[in-house]
Design a protein that fits this description.
The chain is α+β, with helices and mostly antiparallel strands. It contains eleven helices and ten strands. The chain starts with a strand and ends in a 10-residue tail after the last helix.
Amino acid sequence: MTATRVTREPPRYRVEFDTTDPDRAREYLSAAYDTPIAFSGDRATYRFRHVRLGPGPFHLDSVDYQSTAEYRANAPFTMAMVARVHRGVRTDCATGERLGPGDLALHVPPEKPQHVRQEYVLWSVATIPPEAIAEVARNHPDDPPRPVRFTARRPAHPGDTRRWLHVVDYVTESLTNAADLIAHPLMVGPMTRLLAATLLTTFPNSCAPEPCYQDRTDATPAALSRAVGFIDANADLDISLVDVARAARVTVRAVRHAFRLHLDTTPTEYLRRVRLDRAHQELTDLVPGDGTAIADVAARWGYTNSSRFRSDYHRLYGRSPGRRPGH
């Protein structure tokens, strides 16, 4: 039996695949993870289910093997993958490493081809493009991104695991609650960078850049003015800290320091405030009863969590987003 069901549209945003045919599962997995995969195991008891959520370039997957089988990935994976086991045991046949319930592990290219044994495993996988990880690790905006080398496949501290899980839960909830805007650039870009940045703080790595004296000396009012002007003019676009630093003609850390020093905030918080102002203006200009939902306006301006939008809106404007002044 094989069933592929696509929910929400277009189809790449959420895909469910369910089969008892290992050959169909192999074909599906090879396409989903962009690498040839071979299978061996008991075909009579085989059952596989896969759910993929995400617009790309990142994906959040749920992988359920209701049998015991071995898989070989005949070529290295091209994406960084963070896997958490919920049930069963996953064994790396080359190293003997075993992952059981609660274990979190990182797989990054260019790892060797994999040979794993899945024993009734249910696990979740977040896939992130390596270029996104290299991008968030940059300090000098005009320097080419350099690959990040990870020094461990497990988090160093339990708090790192909790932070990763919290971010994945937030992204999953956001994508689910704002399905109609799931591919909006102000959702996709920030969430990709959020996952990449959290991955860098979860797994030990070599990307910590050496301090640069310009990081502080360039945090001037002039640099801040250039950064603020760029954000104000481009808040409707998917702009990153690297983009802001390039426009300000300073490093990423200098931009952060300038906002803290002169405005007592961060570039990200300032950008969120500008977008909240734009959402406020859009809501103010709405004609009552025209069918526009508050959640849609919030999501268009980067707020995928409607509760947070209402809270921030009330804190800033002193009323709920659906109410007019004086009401």
